[in-house]
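Structure tokens please, single chain.
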Amino acid sequence: MIYLDSAATTLQKPPAVPRAAAWAMSHLTTPGRGGHPPAMGAAETAFRCRQAAADLFGVPDPEQVVFTFNATHALNLAIRALVGAGDRVVISGWEHNAVTRPLHALGAEVIPARAPLFDRQAQLDAFDQALKAETKAVICTHVSNVFGFVLPVEELAGLCRRKGVPFVLDASQSAGCLPVSLEELGAAFVAMPGHKGLYGPQGTGLLLCAAGMLPPPLLAGGTGSMSALQAMPDFLPDRLEAGTHNIPGIAGLLEGLRYVRARGTERILRHEQALVRRAAARLSALPGVEVFASDAPAEQAGVLSFRAAGRDCEELGEALGRRGAALRAGLHCAPEAHRSAGTLETGTVRLSVSAFNTPAEIDRAAQLLAHILRP
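Here you go.
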């Protein structure tokens, strides 16, 4: 199997990740639930994971790193901390349903700052224009999960700081391959999954919280701290971590973070961008294939979408899968992105890579598509 769906979940992991998760299953219990070695070992593992994330993502205090189930969980916490019914929220035109559905559920007024694909200056100008009116929050993806478009989040964060508007970054497609710093961005929150570019297990995620940010909990329950009180603790991370921790997942995530730190985000990004450029060249040479690729390497990360004239994208994705290439087709849980790019009616087939993919795999996937499209 040629696995090219890492924008959904990385399948190939550093060997230390599954080893750590398996070891934790039989040796560790839950932080804060006892003074015995299995519980204390779990607490140490959780702290080391918070510290590794804080070091990698520019968080001053590890206690500002909250464990979540995934990026969607993290984004819900961030959004509910800042937004209420009727509040005006500005988003990019490339957002995932993990952003738009919570805003819809809250009854917020959502203003998409739309701009052409791969035009970073136009995207920044669209945000500037949208922020003329009173805005409660700006929420923006770092990298489009459909097209790999790297948005100008550093400049946008600066704009938000100047205007005094809280900024929330969805780093679902950038954590692990692009520099992300909570402190340098001055963001209120940064949300990310553990199971994508951080190479951790599914069911893990992180919410990075700026100092002083104390979101209302989505869940109430035991935390192992302040047990005499019926209210949730008023400090992080306990306030947002009710119930038993996913310690096997956290142990695996710790090893994923260590892998990214050792390999380096810049090296990972260069590798992924080279593969995407190779894929764009191979696929665009096929008759009738439309490839959504940037001419500027810095504007696209390890995600590439395409479609073929007269062919259903989901049928193409299934045909590739039957022949041994795992790609994703459809709307990718991001109708806003397809609306912005003009692909809402058709969707796209998405190819997404990781540090473990090779040029030979890209070439083979292109050959398989050529065979499928042959009259």
